[in-house]
Design goal:
The protein is mainly beta. The protein has helices at 2-29, 168-171, and strands at residues 36-39, 58-61, 66-81, 84-104, 107-116, 121-134, 137-145, 178-190, 193-202, 238-247, 251-261, 266-267, 270-271, 277-289, 294-305, 318-335, 338-353, 369-382, 385-397, 405-417. The strands form 2 sheets. It has a 16-stranded antiparallel β-barrel with strand order 3-4-5-6-7-8-9-10-11-14-15-16-17-18-19-20. Strands 12-13 form a two-stranded antiparallel sheet. The protein is globular.
Length: 418
């Protein structure tokens, strides 16, 4: 299995290199610049979060039925915890490639391939076919992005003023959590209101969310199970549903739920355990205040799961957390030759509690949580490119409520669509 997986990764790398080489040759060989057309998207004016998968800039080459795009992130960081530091580091956390095609009228295909940590890992985050039957009823199948919260769907680096992804959206909701499955989606708009929904049945979590080397409840651990793209861990689907309402002058609010069985309760007809559920609920909101153009973007998530009584209390059966971003443009004009360039100041407040509740023995609070404050400054020469400077400060308290470990650091980098 491991050799097959490595072989597939090797072939995928070669395919991506061939695509990039092909585009490069076309770019140098065409004398007519109209052959390559960029489909622009103003990423500063986000639509519904669930529209983000198609709300991206693409390059369209002549009459070819395929469009391509992508983005890259690169940054540097210097962090210290309680006075101890590992010094300055440089990272390319991800480069993502989009390939889309309109196969036939109202039949579309889109894939999103991410190369993480300098190419150490290659992941297919999205690869699905959409069949549009009616604005209120459409089909989608393949590798789909589970629509839990707002960030999981709308996660492209160039859209955000912060280098690190939100803590709650990466450690409670597994960041860019996607699975193989099928579902329906639709949208209805009238006057200043737009309403939309999505519903999917997919493969899902496995028991690694509690049986892991973190020694705590850790939902991102299921992302390591690549076999979820081939088969279900326990034969039970994971269901995800979301509905969102947007007023064009006020903002968007979304409600989502994701739930299913995470453990292997039966093997070859032999009952191993009872069915144990996991459920996540999330609410997300974003708005832009008129006149001063302040953008507010936030999300809150709750998670609950049924944990075996053989596990100790350090494994939380209830988790919660969220974040709020506030971004304020302070300069918007021609800067260094770039028209309509923007300088923003920003701030993010974050919280995640990985074990909500009290100890059974004494009723004292379980303190496995983290707070973070992230002020930032960003420069956008265009809506599709951002240069970011962040200062991160967070303090993390262990299970027993000992004095918090304090971490502070500076991050600098950029993210851009290409």
């Amino acid at each position: 299995m491991k050799q097959t997986f490595l072989y597939n990764l090797h072939n995928m790398k070669k395919a991506i290199l061939l695509i990039l080489l092909f585009l490069n040759l076309i770019g140098y060989s065409q004398t007519d610049s109209s052959f390559i057309k960029r489909i622009q998207t103003d990423t500063s004016n986000m639509k519904l979060n669930m529209d983000a998968v198609y709300n991206r800039p693409f390059l369209q080459m002549g009459k070819l039925p395929v469009s391509i795009g992508g983005y890259i992130e690169a940054n540097s960081s210097y962090f210290g915890t309680d006075g101890v530091t590992e010094g300055l580091s440089f990272q390319i956390p991800r480069m993502t490639i989009f390939i889309s095609s309109t196969i036939k009228k109202r039949i579309k295909f889109l894939s999103e391939i991410e190369l993480e940590e300098g190419g150490k890992e290659i992941a297919i985050e999205f690869a699905s076919m959409d069949i549009e039957l009616h604005p209120l009823f459409n089909l989608r199948g393949g590798v789909v992005m589970n629509p839990i919260g707002g960030f999981n769907q709308n996660h492209d680096g160039p859209k955000w003023e912060f280098i690190s992804r939100p803590i709650s959206s990466t450690t409670i909701i597994p960041s860019t959590w996607s699975n193989v499955g099928f579902g329906i989606f639709g949208k209805y708009g009238r006057n200043n209101l737009v309403w939309a929904y999505e519903f999917y049945a997919t493969n899902g979590f496995d028991d690694k969310i509690i049986a892991n080397d973190q020694n705590r409840t850790w939902l991102p651990e299921s992302k390591k199970n690549k076999e979820r793209f081939e088969e279900s861990f326990n034969g039970e689907p994971l269901y995800t549903a979301k509905t969102a309402l947007r007023h064009r002058k006020i903002g968007e609010i979304g409600f989502s739920w994701m739930g299913g069985i995470y453990n292997k309760f039966m093997d070859d007809g032999i009952e191993l355990d009872k069915k144990r559920r996991i459920d996540l609920f999330a609410i997300d909101f974003n708005t832009t205040i008129p006149v001063i153009k302040t953008t507010i973007n936030g999300e809150w998530v709750w998670a609950s799961l049924d944990i075996p009584t053989t596990y100790t209390q350090q494994f939380g059966d209830k988790l919660q957390g969220g974040f709020v971003d506030i971004v304020q443009p302070i300069i918007r004009r021609k800067i260094l030759g770039w028209e309509n360039a923007t300088i923003n100041i920003a701030a993010r407040l974050e919280y995640a509690d990985y074990n909500v509740g009290t100890f059974r023995e004494n009723g004292e609070n379980i303190s496995d949580h983290i707070y973070a404050v992230v002020p930032g400054l960003s420069f956008r020469p265009s809506p599709q490119t951002v240069i970011r400077l962040n200062y991160r400060y967070h303090w993390q308290t262990d299970l027993l409520g000992n004095p918090a470990a304090r971490t502070a650091g500076i991050q600098f980098g950029f993210s851009t669509y290409f």
